[in-house]
Structure formats: structure tokens, C-alpha cells
Specification:
Helix content is 43%, strand content 18%. It has 374 residues and is of the alpha/beta class. It has 2 domains: 89 residues, Aspartate Aminotransferase, domain 1; 221 residues, Aspartate Aminotransferase, domain 2 (3-Layer(aba) Sandwich), CATH 3.40.640.10. The chain has a 7-stranded mixed beta sheet, with helices on both faces. Helix 2 runs antiparallel to helix 11 and helix 7 packs parallel to helix 8. The chain is globular.
Length: 374
């Protein structure tokens, strides 16, 4: 059926024309791959765009666990868990996450995005103040908007500014931050944040989606109330999100969080894959993969604290041209530009993985140097 001309189609075309004119047109490309290497338009390409930091999406044990779950429970979870019930793998994964993070309870959601919406939507509201780092992920920003709370944004990693806002906030305050920031690859001062929140009686919400190498929150923060949020979709190579914390807070999410109550549960295959990946991560195999990842990062930027290495170029067109030049050389490195990052800070975002061959990383470094990008 051909869309009829009308106001909405005319408006959409006008908006698309504006996106093209601004040089911000985007469309997904087909990357036929398992792991970091595959083909684009029939040409071999090594991807430095993926968040599969430990390469577990293609690990044989992870893939086998997904296959077994498909055979046992089928392709879908069929409804919300409060309606249809949980599969055993949902409960096993939640127990494993709680053990991993040292918390009473954990709950699994369909995506990491949904996890942030769940926490801020369920715990926020009139009478609540949310203090959010200015470089937090879009899912946190949207969760703040949906929470109906008073939202104040503190300068990036600025503890003095946060302390000022905490002093002026009401008795029910949430401080929310990424622990690793997704476009800059830098880290939050998590122990200092915990100290401030414990002193002010604020709930600290840490989104650990990209925190495969830390930062780790140390013990000793007496009185701290904490929720940890994460994803199954990056270091664990699957799809989904999770929240871990005290039993009352997690049980409140199960009873109040709309992204949990009104959405079909994560599929058994995704959950079983994540469970297998997490068990690998917590064992000797995980330690080996983390060491491989650390070595890959150090080839690009020694000592950098995360697998996300930004190369800030400023101009949008320069970033796109640099990404295109790298693709011509067989490397998929995305150009990140507004509105994802502020105007004037367009960049290449290099994402490293334990699955990258060392010679492929060295070849990328050589290409970056050849193009004057590093």
C-alpha cells in the first residue's frame, strides 16, 4: 500500500530534508558477522563498533546455552512474568547477578534502557529530587523525565557541584550516574559519590553498563543505600538489563516498575545465554578475557580506564570522513555526532574487545596514525 500524501507525510519529508541538509543523515548498514569480523557489501571488515567487550556473544558455551533454552522453553517468554510466570532461567540469572554484585536481590528486564526507566520511574515522583551527571546516558535522561521528579543536572564528575545540590535537595533524593560514560570512556568517582550520598541520606544509582574493567565500589560506606543497574547486552554478549540492590527496593520495582510489569519478559534464550556468560565471567575464563581486553586497550591508548576510546575531531564532517576512510581500509569505527554528543565534539568511538586479534588492533593503530587521527 502506497502512503497517501498528507500533512504528516509532508512534515516527515520536511524533517528528513533538514536532517540531510545538516549532514546528520543516518541509516543502518548490514554487517554479516559473528564476533568482530565479517563482511560489509561483500568486503572483509573488522568492527571496532561493538560493545561485546569480552567477545562472549560468540563464545561456544554461551551459544550452546541459548540453543538448549530454545529447545526446552521455546523462542519467547510469551508475557510479563507477573502474568505468565518466570522460567527457571530467569530466577537462576537473578540469583547469579545478586551474588555477583553482593546484593540481597536482583531483577532482570528486557533491556538496559528499560532498567533505567524502571528504577527512576518507580522510585521517583513528586517530592523526589534526582541529581544526574550531565553526561549520563539517554536512558537515564529519559528515566529522569518520566519520573515526574524535580531533576537537577550536576557538572560532569564535579563533586563540589553535586555537594551543593545535595545540600539544597529535599529528604528524598536520588543521585544517578553512569560508572563508565559511554561516549568519553571516562569513569565516575564512585567511592566519592558513595561518601556524599551516605552522608546526605541519598539513594545512589550506579549504571554499570560499560564497567567491564571497573570502577569498583569499595566497602566501608556505612549507611549507603545503593542500586546497581546494568545490561546483559554488552560484557555478557546477550540482550537484557538488570537491577541489583536491597530486597525492599527490588521488590518495589517488581510491583511498581512499568517496564517490568507491562512488557514481555526477556526470552529464555537471551537469559540462558547471559547466565552462561556471567558464570564464565566470574571464573578463570573471565579473568583471561579481561586480561586480553586490557592488553587490546593498551595497544590503542595505554592505561585508559575502559574499552571505549574516543578520538574527538570536533567537526561532524571530519568525523564522518575519517570513519569512511577507515572503512575503506577495512575497519568499522563509527562517527559519533550530534545529537548523541554536543556540537563541536564529534568523534570516532573505538570500542575494544577481548575477541579482537592483536594484529588487527595493531593494524587499526597504524591506520589511525596514517590518517593523523591518534
Amino acid at each position: 500500500m502506497v502512503a497517501a500524501p498528507g500533512r504528516w507525510n509532508a512534515w516527515a519529508r520536511s524533517e528528513l530534508d533538514g536532517i540531510r541538509a545538516a549532514g546528520r543523515w543516518r541509516s543502518p548498514r548490514t554487517f554479516d558477522a559473528k564476533g568482530p569480523e565479517g563482511t560489509i557489501d561483500g568486503r572483509h571488515v573488522v568492527s571496532f563498533a561493538s560493545n561485546d567487550y569480552l567477545g562472549l556473544s560468540a563464545h561456544p558455551q554461551v551459544v550452546a546455552a541459548a540453543h538448549d533454552a530454545l529447545d526446552r522453553w521455546g523462542a519467547g517468554s510469551t508475557a510479563s512474568r507477573l502474568v505468565v510466570g518466570s522460567r527457571p532461567c530467569h530466577e537462576e540469572l537473578e540469583a547469579e547477578i545478586a551474588g555477583w554484585k553482593g546484593t540481597d536481590r536482583a531483577v532482570v528486564l528486557p533491556t538496559g534502557y528499560a532498567a533505567n526507566l524502571a528504577v527512576l520511574g518507580a522510585l521517583g515522583g513528586p517530592g523526589v529530587t534526582v541529581l544526574s551527571d550531565e553526561l549520563n546516558h539517554a536512558s537515564i535522561i529519559d528515566g529522569c523525565r518520566l519520573s515526574r521528579s524535580e531533576v537537577r543536572v550536576y557538572r560532569h564528575r564535579d563533586l563540589d557541584h553535586l555537594e551543593e545540590l545535595l545540600a539544597a535537595a529535599g529528604p528524598r533524593t536520588i543521585v544517578v550516574t553512569d560508572s563508565v560514560f559511554s561516549m568519553d570512556g571516562d569513569t565516575a568517582p564512585v567511592d566519592d559519590l558513595a561518601r556524599l550520598c551516605a552522608g546526605a541520606g541519598a539513594l545512589l544509582v550506579l549504571d554499570e553498563a560499560h564497567a567491564v574493567l571497573g570502577p569498583d565500589l569499595h566497602d566501608g560506606h556505612e549507611g549507603l543505600e545503593l542500586l546497581r543497574v546494568g545490561t546483559l547486552s554488552k560484557s555478557l554478549g546477550s540482550l537484557g538489563g538488570w537491577v541489583a540492590g536491597s530486597a525492599p527496593l527490588v521488590e518495589l520495582l517488581v510491583n511498581r516498575a512499568r517496564p517490568y510489569i507491562f512488557t514481555t519478559a526477556p526470552t529464555p534464550a537471551d537469559v540462558a545465554a547471559a547466565l552462561a556468560a556471567l558464570r564464565l565471567l566470574r571464573g578463570d575464563e573471565g579473568a583471561r578475557l579481561v586480561a586480553q581486553l586490557r592488553a587490546a586497550i593498551d595497544l590503542v591508548r595505554p592505561g585508559h580506564p575502559s574499552p571505549i576510546v574516543p578520538l574527538v575531531l570536533g567537526d561532524e564532517r571530519r568525523a564522518v570522513a575519517a570513519s569512511d576512510a577507515l572503512l575503506e581500509r577495512g575497519f568499522l569505527v563509527p562517527a559519533i555526532r550530534p545529537p548523541t554528543v554536543p556540537v563541536g565534539t564529534s568523534r570516532l568511538r573505538v570500542a575494544l574487545s577481548a575477541a579482537h586479534r592483536r594484529d588487527a588492533v595493531r593494524d587499526l593503530v597504524a591506520a589511525l596514525d596514517e590518517l593523523g587521527l591518534r
